[in-house]
Amino acid sequence: MHNKPTRNSVTRRGLLKGATALGAAGLILPASYRAAQATPNQGGTFRIGLGHGNSTDGYDPGLWDNLYAQVFAASRHNQLIEVDADGQLAPEIAESWESPDGKTWVFRIREGVSFHSGKTVTVEDVIASLNHHRGDDATSAIKQFFDPVTDISADGQNVVVTLDAPNGDFAYLMSDYHLAIMPSVDGRIDPASTDGCGPYVVESYEPGVQASLTRNPDYWKSDRAHFDRVEILAILDSAARLNALMTGQVDLIDQIDPATIGMLEARNVANILSIPGNAHYVFPMDSRAAPFNDNNVRLALKYAIDRQEMVDKILGGHGAVSNDNPIGPANRYFHADMEAKTFDPDRARFHLREAGMESLSVDLHVADAAFSGAVDAGALFAETAAQSGININLVREPNDGYWDNVWMQKPFCASYWGGRAVEDHMFTTGYATGASWNDSFWSNERFDELLVMARSEINEDLRREMYQEMQQIVSFEGSVIIPMNNNFVMATAQNVVTPEQVSANWNLDGFRCVERWWFA
Amino acid sequence: MNVLIFLVLAIAASIPLSYAFRAGLVRVLPHEKALVARDMPLTAAFGIMVIGVYVIVAFAAPLLAPFPERAVVGSQFQPWDSTYLLGTDRLGRDMLSRLIYGARNTVGIAFATTALAFVVGALLGIWAALRGGWLDQLLSRFVDALMAIPSLIFSLLLLTIFGTSVLTLILVIAAVDATRVYRIARSVSQGVVVMDYIEAARLRGEGNWYLIRHEILPNALAPLVAEFGLRFCFVFLTISSLSFLGLGIQPPTADWGSMVRDNATLITFGDMTPLMPAGAIALLTVAVNFVVDWQLYRASGLKEQG
Amino acid sequence: MSSDVLLQIRDLQIEGRAGEDWLPIIKGVNLTLKRGEVLGLIGESGAGKSTLGLAAMGFARDGCRISGGEINFDGIDLRTASERAKRNLRGQRIAYVAQSAAASFNPAHKLIDQYCEVPVLGGMSRSKAADEAVTLYRKMQLPDPEDIGFRYPHQVSGGQLQRAMTAMAMACHPDLIIFDEPTTALDVTTQIEVLAAIRDIVRDFNTAAIYITHDLAVVAQMADRIKILLRGDEVEEADTRAMLAAPKAEYTKSLWAVRSFTRPEQPPAEGAPLVSVQGVTAGYGKAQILHDVSFDIHPGRTVAVVGESGSGKSTVARVITGLLPPREGQVVFDGQPLPPDYRARTRDQLRQCQMIYQMADTALNPKLPLRELIGRPAQMYLGLKGRALDARVRDLLALIELEPDQYIDRLPSELSGGQKQRIGIARALAAEPRLIICDEVTSALDQIVQEGILKLLDRLQREFGLAYMFITHDLSTVRAIADDVVVMQLGRVVEQGPKPEMFTPPHAPYTDLLLSSVPEMDPDWLTRLLAAR
Amino acid sequence: MHAVLMMILQRLGLGILTLFVVSVVIFGATELLPGDLASSLLGQSATPETVAALRQQMGLDQPAPVRYWTWLTGVVQGDFGVSLATRRPISDMMSMRLGNTVFLALYAAAIAVPLSLVLGILAALWRNSLFDRVANAGALSAISFPEFFVAYILIFLLAQSGVFPSMVRISPAMGLTDKLYVTFLPALTLTLVVTAHMMRMTRAAIINLMASPYIEMARLKGVSPLRIVLRHALPNALAPIINVVALNLAYLITGVVVVEVVFVYPGLGQLMVDSVAKRDIAVVQAIALIFASAYVLLNLTADVLSTLTNPRLMRRK
After folding, report:
1. What is the CATH number of the domain that holds C40?
2. Which ranges constitute the DSSP H helices of B148-216?
3. Which residue among B145, B154, B270 places its CB closest to the CB of D21?
């Protein structure tokens, strides 16, 4: 089961805060310091059942690729920068950071933090942890983050990162979950080590089965990590996960089969958390290939899909209809007033005729690897599209190798995005001409022009206008169908308490449930 | 508890039904066949009746099903009512219609797969037994090696390599099953090959093809038919196991194995939905085996009383 | 009822299941047996003699039921007795000796364990039973009586097994033993030893016995009285000597007459032989079975190859047909040496030499109708098709005296044993061969049927000028049909020559033993023979 | 005994040949799979450079025959190597899972084998009785449902009420009783799956022999029906029964990945499926070899036992 790594992100506000920090160079307290809640209880063993985790999972931070690895990493490691529950960048091992010109970035390393082994976290450890992902022979999934980095050096308690060109987003990149701070020996980290400076100490770990951790008694965050022990279990089968929760063998599960959410709620044995965010499911069409090179065909398909039914049946209602817009309601410049595309077979037929076709037959390649429920979503799409004279022939692909062999290989397939809090980031990575994840191979001159202009536009209104025009273009001329925004849905035992604000940044409270939640 | 009562009632009802069915057969069939029908045990009558119903349902699916196979006709998981006799599935498709179409697809695919496995496996097995020597050794050792690889994982590998269309599914499962058929065909044929009539045919100068078709196959048929029945049923199970691992029949084609898999989580909440396709598979398996048992018993000539 | 009477069967009726129907097998037979008396039950296969014998134990095979009459064993009504009561009787008071000891001993257990089972169930200690076993084994003249019990059945020869089985039956000193064709499967020389042992032990223990057989000469040695059955009906019953001297019923007379068939003698062979077996040495793997075997078969003549099991007579046939290429020597057919391997022979060479097998059941494909069984050689060798083929098959059926319309579409399973053997003959004839090898073709058949087959073969030989190689262990068959005789022992030819010569002394010692072992229709034959030896 | 020894040696030789063929087939199949370890480890974030770097680090840039040869020479020297994905020694990764797999297989077999023998013998003894029919139909129904379905039903019935855990959490430190308790449901599931096959074979093998002359002989000796079945038929029916038991044991070891998934049981099957997905060929090969060895050894054991129980094969004349 693959997660697509690195396609999620921190929120816009987080980035802004970071940007503010450029000038202020001040210290920003983690969110929890401010959002003081009822005093959490200490104690208990928190057991998490995840629909991820393979026996082939490795230890190498550069290769963490699924929710299991992510939660396990968050349980034992800290990073330079945390994304707090509000989606803001917050200091973690980096006490503060600044960049006078966007080219040189200075991170001040927190003092007095120690690894589980007892060794103090030093600047060298941080540099080695970053360098693990950098260099020609690096095999990290985020190697490209470091492509523009020309130098990483120590300056007292600071780590100085030099880029070949200014990048205001660099601090934001450093919050990536791969960048765990690990102890170094001779300037290199041992990628097979589980030693970290995070909230819990690894007791035992069997890849693909379970990890047991105990609370780090010396954890530097005194108001975090409320459980005595944490156990993370890989339970790949969704029925097994449900059963484990219902029979009290675990306290938290992810990925609930939408079909059963209602029944689980009715049982009244668990709390269901449904966290809306910018994550969305997409059907990219290769805009270079016939028939998708004709916008009328794309529009026909966009009107031939029943978005509300998708939300109801594929998400079990835990999500929202999207208007083929990768920018979500949580985004700052979200275009709420666009003409909504409802399910309209006549309109779809009209566009087909405009394209000079009476009927259309296309293959849609899906696998549940694309997103959970993708096969059903495809079936539903095919069924509704048939009413518009469009024959969608569903091709189920093996989950195994989906991202290699189908995504960006087949002209019409299923995929997902974690969403981007920053419009520019979303568009740059997914929609600009030639972007590496432009999975529809779409190119629009006006769009590209607006994208560059918007970056440097200071006038808020003009900027809004530009971004909204871009959304309009993507929605009506773009080559992806985005039927819905999906919530992160998880279920907990009834005695699990979460803070009022649960992060929408990543699943499971931005992987941080282990250190942010507690038992009643 | 309800399920139990339902089961008991169903069994109780099936006894007079099978009895009546057998009586009907005896009346309808020509004399010779009627004699055979009269002698068959009730279980076999039940089996034939069930198989007959399945075949009719499979052929007449479009006439019988109230809704099309793929049509989304309602909302999710609607309860049983007069419109949707067995409710709707997770996408709002009519459960009964999918069950009916499922008969066609499931039985059709299983039959094609099994038939292919038998043509290949049985022919090779008989040929190996007939030829003996190095050819037999080579084939048998190779088949041994293939059988030493867990079949489900092997199918998984092959399907990932060759894709998951219905055709490849049939070919892959047939290939894996053919190894099992080969073993049985070979051992049965080895028993036949030593018979004098084979020697006589060889001395007459008959070719291998004649020997296989006329001399060995008819005599190896009974155990092969029995195996056919079992294999036929195992194909459903293999398909549903493959669905479980993410590689089954292509949706939105209705197929019982995948239907069980798709709705399996519901069992957690005591929902009956997945029981229907699973029950359909089980009923057919039991029916086929009842008939096979009877045929084997007839072929063995073993005199059992009662 | 006098206490002298052990077994009393009145108006016994037994039915066998045929589908839903029940067909009579025994149709109202009466039988009375006194203590210590031996009754011979004679009949051909299907006469119901085994069924009757088993009924005397209150036992009906699966698919059979006792539907009428009464069976009274020593005051116990076996028809109403409980299963448990009958079980207690069996083995303890009524014992059974089966036709094939090799099949009737459980292959998984040692002889002694099987011997002890009944006595121990009956309450005897195991060691006592084992001791008695040794005594009985000795009495049955088994070699190594102390140790033979510790062997498994497959390690003991057929004749010895038959004696061990008799010993086992004797274990509880039963009042009655049923012998069901105990020597039928044995060679003649072995048969004598078993007969003698059985006769002695039955006399010594004063056990009553029912001796079932189809061989008059055998029963003459064993029984005090003889009862003849035909298709479930009683034909006649009389004291042995009276019966032998003056059979009353027609059927009985025909049984006697069977042995009278002989072929007119032919002048000695002249000219070139059709087949010449020249110095053949052959074997499987390391085992050498044939040693320098040579003989000729002349056109139109019958060569009988005689010998007991293991003498290599069937192996000779395999060499001639090419199934077993010889190590040395060759087979010359019509002046041309035949390729040793049948696969190298031409279709015509294959056609000229046909074979008829001992067991028609395994020699005819049970799934093919007669039309194809007989028609195939004609189609293959002679290229007949359609109507011509159909006509030829019908001709052949007529030739073997089966009504074509009635039989042409039947399966072998719908035929009797003799009819099946006729199909084997027809199949051989269909190829229009010059030599037919007959491998024990009559040994599995009843005597009357045997005679019919022999007559048919004789007629066909004269009609088509066929040469026969007749493999048999039965000297009466040899006497009936052979022109020339080849006697084999342990893979060597012991003696050969024209029949008249062979049946007149002096003989080679083995031929002598063989000839003298053939039972004669004289109640004193066995006694005389044993005395003479 | 000598003959048996020879047979064992000969069969072991053939077994090694089988293993070799298996390794070639598995290697070939894994090679044919689209994608390789490097790209699947990096998943969607793979860029050509990182994939190339990873490939080179792992030696995947070598031609396939070279890699196979390297692997083979390692295995011949008893070195399974390290997993390319996790960089851990494969023997470490497998040892515990192998133990779990064998434990579960033996547990299920310990219930299923006696159960199916007893049921099969009783069904043969009372053939065509109500018991026979019910046992037969019940057994058939049990194998007619997909394994995961049976498992879910058992969980629904026995785990939701809290009698047994729905999920197996097993650790080496556990006592045997605890282990047996937590693995009861998977063992029961597997029992239901394999019992039918063995029971039917037992019944058929015995009934087949009931027409033998020596069974009639035993009946004519006044032996009771139960004793006939147990003492006269069963010893001669052992060969087919042993074979079917071996086949099912092999299945219990090699074919239970679905049950492992449902009960979250850390066995070899799941490891193999994961490794196939990750194209971790060394691990796939190692497990395939273990599975194939289990299959070969069980078949060999069955043949040896069949020979030992058959006096005709054991003691020549």
Report:
1. 3.40.50.300
2. 151-162, 166-193, 196-204, 208-210
3. B145
